[in-house]
């Protein structure tokens, strides 16, 4: 620590530059993790909101809520602690010149997936809906009459709920009758028992479904099968993993260049009998200081810039993930220093001092 | 009592027709309390002799005993330990760490070794070498002579049993050079250690108990 610290003090500029580079790498990692997290919640918020253990869909729907259709009577055969039915359809909602892609959920008001209202009130009359607060940010308000792309029905926003997006589209919650009128139009009466899926809360998921044609899908599996979800998160996570590798290589190169420059100095100290182990520890300590400072500054900068970002950019920082990534960055930087340590161990003191 | 003993030590560089016999077969011994000078022309093998004596360079053949330990069978790590404990080097090239202040050059030794000089001894050493005012300066901010004196302070500071000095007075004016020799002499006598000084400057040799002359790798006793 003594050597490491004194050298940092003496060569401030050099080390500030290295810290700067590490900071930028950390910034990028944190930002990407925020983006990955934000994009993920864009897709899954509404599902997380259910706080359910699984969803029951038809086998042939291939884990897609939209493609699954069943009769509400299927619910009777399901042996679970709590159940909730859901009907779902996508639409474009418009009021005035504002347009938005929305996902419409038809639900039963007294079942557990009924969302908490943060503004306004629950839907009660026909064609009343509770909207995701994301719509509010886009300029929609209480009392807005929404025309829909696929039907003549108009919906009225009577309340808002927080964090309710499904597959990137803000959700409109209404009752099952409203949902059926939108989906089936004039044939709504004839399809009076149609729903898309049954959401369950249960401790045990085995032999839940009473019917061969139904499939019980755990919530996490269901989310992973949302269109584009897995592809997106894989892409971003790969970028993050590559950044880890890149930052380790950058640190390795920087420290190696620094070490090579100091070979004669290390030689002098080794000639004096100062153990290689002491010198190696000092390089490691130095790397730790550089990486830790870089990561911490990057961390603060990320949170600062996150606060000033327009809401259209879907970043959501998860502090725990960031702390883990920060640790990984520091560990990876120290791995990069191992190269330099090997060099130091190999220095022949005599050659180094040119005696 | 012999603190340093070399038996049939030889050093050759390179091989074939490029081979240089830098040190021919040499027997040498230094006792406690002795201040020894090695003189000789440039390229004659003085530095080679000194670095072998200090365990920095392995001889081609022969044995070196430092304080009753045979260096021959030791690896670099073990030799490094002996250097730290027994030897104070004052090298021909600068041997200061560029990013440490004068004071910290010595503090570094405190980090890795016990038995260095006490606080007041250290102050006295700085005083004797005329470098008390330079304590918080970096090597780059010093003159060549000042740097040399700090290097001397560093070598003496760890209370080694052998001080090996390669041209310690090269960049000093004669008054300073005499003072440095005085200092080395009093260290040697007071602490009953051994000092070997390689020098070009024959005016300094009357400080020494023995003078060896090196010519083309052959070491002969010149004056006792
Ligand atoms: N690493 C080396 N490889 C090959 N030859 C070397 C090496 N080091 C020294 N020599 C040769 O060995 C001989 C002795 O060199 P040495 O450095 O011991 O001389 P010196 O007496 O200390 O000279 P000076 O007074 O100039 O310092 C010289 O001829 C030199 O060229
Ligand atoms: Mg020499």
From TrEMBL, chain A:
Keyword Kinase in annotation: no
Q: What range(s) does the ABC3 transporter permease C-terminal domain occupy?
A: 237-349
In which domain of life is the source organism classified? Answer: Bacteria
Q: Kindly indicate whether the keyword Cytoplasm belongs to this entry.
A: no
The record's subcellular locations are: Cell membrane
GO CC term (a single one): plasma membrane
Entry's InterPro entries?
ABC-4/HrtB_transporter, ABC3_permease_C, MacB_PCD
Annotated ranges, domain MacB-like periplasmic core: 26-204
Instruction: Specify where it is mainly localized.
Output: membrane
Sorted UniProt keywords:
Cell membrane, Membrane, Transmembrane, Transmembrane helix, Transport
Transmembrane stretches, by residue range? 15-36, 238-258, 278-303, 323-345
Q: According to its record, how does it sit in the membrane?
A: Multi-pass membrane protein
Q: Which PANTHER family would you find in this protein's record? A: ABC TRANSPORTER, MEMBRANE PROTEIN, HEMIN TRANSPORT SYSTEM PERMEASE PROTEIN HRTB-RELATED
Q: Which family does it belong to?
A: Belongs to the ABC-4 integral membrane protein family. HrtB subfamily.
**Subunit field text:** The complex is composed of two ATP-binding proteins (HrtA), two transmembrane proteins (HrtB) and a solute-binding protein.
Primary role: Part of the ABC transporter complex hrt involved in hemin import. Responsible for the translocation of the substrate across the membrane.
Its protein name is: Putative hemin transport system permease protein HrtB
UniProtKB/TrEMBL annotation, chain B:
This protein is called Putative hemin import ATP-binding protein HrtA
Q: Which PROSITE patterns match?
A: ABC_TRANSPORTER_1 (PS00211), ABC_TRANSPORTER_2 (PS50893)
Q: Which UniProt keywords apply?
A: ATP-binding, Cell membrane, Membrane, Nucleotide-binding, Transport
Annotated coiled-coil segments of the chain? none
Job of this protein: Part of the ABC transporter complex hrt involved in hemin import. Responsible for energy coupling to the transport system.
InterPro entries the record matches? AAA+_ATPase (IPR003593), ABC_transporter-like_ATP-bd (IPR003439), ABC_transporter-like_CS (IPR017871), ABC_transpr_LolD-like (IPR015854), MacB-like_ATP-bd (IPR017911), P-loop_NTPase (IPR027417)
Q: A Gene Ontology CC term for this entry?
A: plasma membrane
Annotated membrane-spanning segments are none
In Gene Ontology terms, what is one molecular function of this protein? Answer: ATP binding
Q: Where in the cell is it found?
A: Cell membrane
Family named by the database record = Belongs to the ABC transporter superfamily. HrtA family.
User: Pfam family of this protein, just one?
Assistant: ABC_tran
Q: What is the protein's quaternary organization?
A: The complex is composed of two ATP-binding proteins (HrtA), two transmembrane proteins (HrtB) and a solute-binding protein.
**Top-level taxon of origin:** Bacteria
CDD domains xref list: ABC_MJ0796_LolCDE_FtsE (cd03255)
Q: Which residues form the ABC transporter domain?
A: 4-224
What membrane topology was assigned to this protein in its record?
A: Peripheral membrane protein
Q: Which Gene3D superfamilies match?
A: P-loop containing nucleotide triphosphate hydrolases
